[in-house]
Amino acid sequence: MSGWLRIIGLGPGDTALRTPEADAALAAATDLVGYGPYVARVAARPEQRRHETDNRQELDRARHALAMAQSGARVAVVSSGDAGVFAMASAVFEAVEHGPPEWRALDIAVLPGISAMFAAAARLGAPLGHDFCALSLSDNLKPWPLVERRLTAAAGAGFVIALYNPVSRARPWQLGRAFELLRGLLPGETPVAFATAVSRPEERIELRPLADADPALADMRTLVLIGSAATRGIAREGARPWLYTPRSASSP
Amino acid sequence: MSGWLRIIGLGPGDTALRTPEADAALAAATDLVGYGPYVARVAARPEQRRHETDNRQELDRARHALAMAQSGARVAVVSSGDAGVFAMASAVFEAVEHGPPEWRALDIAVLPGISAMFAAAARLGAPLGHDFCALSLSDNLKPWPLVERRLTAAAGAGFVIALYNPVSRARPWQLGRAFELLRGLLPGETPVAFATAVSRPEERIELRPLADADPALADMRTLVLIGSAATRGIAREGARPWLYTPRSASSP
């Protein structure tokens, strides 16, 4: 039997946002590998082994998955959202690069998913309708001054900013520091959206002007979206305003 | 009968990459609206009206869709990829903001799709595994100096760059100019990927170092992806190298 590895984006949560391609690979896999809460989103199948691991063990998890595929298993590594965005795909290729040469010959494919960023944007309106960037606020794997430098560059050049990993128990102050920095660069009325667990039962969306953006509105499941000077709100009666960034832009 | 409007991302092409949520809305719609080649991707249904328009008429198309929804139709506006990314969602909300007040009370929702950027990244490996930005190279709706300013900011701060709308008949020189600019800011060996029509029969992927990146490799269906200094290639025998950007970064 010839093994393979599929790195699968499960989408933001609702199975109606999971692609048929992902479903087919999940059904064909002998082994399911991933962070516990993500593996739990996949319906259990008899005879499919489930390997649930802790959040911080991406590289070990990747090596384990590769070793299983090498020995003939059909392995599905699952991530929330899109597996290529601050998720497992990069860890798998890092393991391939530094692993035994045979891993380079394995049948590996990445199956894209609906990212947290686009699921959040869809709920809000069209805030990512023009130039934007995605930035992880985690300083576990990069120095904090680099985060600040990227925030400064992005805000200064007029990109809408999507922040991944805004906060965790081990990183409580970073989001507040980011807001502080951005208040010096963008108007106080710049819209900030906190989109938590989009498409899951506990979904919650909060909008604030940057001047009043409160880091306590974010947790580990939150995507924080910061508008550019061009991003606009459309007031609606009895509903949250639509947020969108026009397709046209003048020099900021 | 009460109308609605759904702004739907069809994904990059292959229906295995279209979400069940999108399929359900397409099946329930009375009217289908979009650029001809995108509407053509949706299987025809008897009794569903198809309104195919030209590429450049986003705002007219949006107004037409809103007016139909207002008069009771169930309208699906379709885009390729994700409808929120350089696509129809922003045009619809622009039309809502400047249209009759009743349009703000309409039942509107955006249904996210697999974006061209993530479909391309999945084929390549994990080039968007760390901080990245997405930028439209079209200067139809923004001044070219602003494009250059954003490219400079993004490359200087170490973002991987995804270029949408790299070239068209009316915009033949912009991509070459962008490469020229980036050659002054990034190492010549920085990987550049040209991902055309990913998941469609005519799919084509080309990799070049920035020093040799040839704008002629791109057409209207191409997503151009430019690595950061951290992006790496993994050589494979008899296959295109994997491209990935590690999760960890040091200050550039």
**Secondary structural class of chain A:** alpha/beta
- For this structure, the CATH topology of the largest domain in chain A is Methyltransferase, Cobalt-precorrin-4 Transmethylase, Domain 2
The parts of chain A where pLDDT drops under 50 for at least 5 residues are none
Query: What helical percentage do the residues of chain A reach?
Result: 25-40%
Radius of gyration of chain A: 20 Å
Shape-level CATH architecture of the largest domain in chain A = 2-Layer Sandwich
First-to-last CA distance of chain A: 58 Å
Shape of chain A: globular
Secondary structure: elements and pairs:
The structure is a homodimer of 252-residue chains.
Chain A: E1 4-9, H1 20-28, E2 31-35, H2 36-39, E3 49-53, H3 58-70, E4 74-79, H4 88-98, E5 108-111, H5 116-124, E6 125-126, E7 132-136, H6 144-156, E8 160-164, H7 174-183, E9 191-196, E10 204-209, E11 222-226, E12 232-236, E13 239-244
Parallel strand pairs in A: 1-4, 1-5, 2-3, 2-4, 6-13, 7-8
Antiparallel strand pairs in A: 8-11, 9-10, 9-11, 12-13
Pathway (chains A, B): Cofactor biosynthesis; adenosylcobalamin biosynthesis
Organism (chains A, B): Teichococcus coralli
InterPro entries (chains A, B): 4pyrrol_Mease, 4pyrrol_Methylase_sf, 4pyrrole_Mease_sub1, 4pyrrole_Mease_sub2, Cbl_synth_CobJ/CibH_dom, Precorrin_MeTrfase
